[in-house]
Design a protein that fits this description.
CATH class of the largest domain: Alpha Beta
Shape: elongated
Order of helices and strands: EEEHEHHHH
Strand content: 5-15%
Number of helices: 5
Radius of gyration: 17 Å
Helix content: 40-55%
Largest sheet: 4 strands, mixed
Structural class: alpha+beta
Length: 132
């Protein structure tokens, strides 16, 4: 199941499933951690309801959850990322990356793909890393 996590204009966060047309799950909170916990709570409640009434559980509710973050939520949840250092690694202007993080600048699909590909590349490099 694909779940989007986004920062809202009031500063809170929302998580919602983007797959599965029978059930809409929502989680809210003041942090990404809280919103994920609330989302899982919503999922548990829906699963319990299906079990209680004896209805078949839609297949997508048993799928592994794939969280998708907007840029602001990404940097809030993975706070160990230094925004400027990551921007330099990705070949993006530091100031522009900070504007993306704060929501002051709109991010194009092309730039979003560049950031995602760079983060995946970094993850691969870290996964292959060995310490001596």
């Amino acid at each position: 199941m694909k779940v989007s996590i986004e920062k809202q204009s009031d500063g809170s966060y929302i998580a919602y499933n983007t797959t599965g047309d029978k059930v809409q799950l929502i989680g809210t909170g003041d942090s990404v951690k809280e919103v994920k916990e609330d989302f899982f709570n919503s999922l548990d409640e829906v699963l319990q309801s299906y079990n209680e009434i004896g209805d078949d559980i839609p297949e997508f509710l048993n799928e592994e959850i794939e969280f998708r973050f907007d840029i602001t939520s990404l940097f809030e949840y993975y706070s160990m990322f230094n925004v400027s250092a990551l921007a330099r690694y990705l070949g993006i202007n530091d100031s522009l990356m900070r504007q993306y993080r704060s929501g002051a600048a709109q991010i194009s699909d092309k730039q979003l793909e560049k950031i995602e590909a760079g983060i995946h590349r970094l993850g691969s490099e870290l996964a292959a890393l060995r310490l001596v």
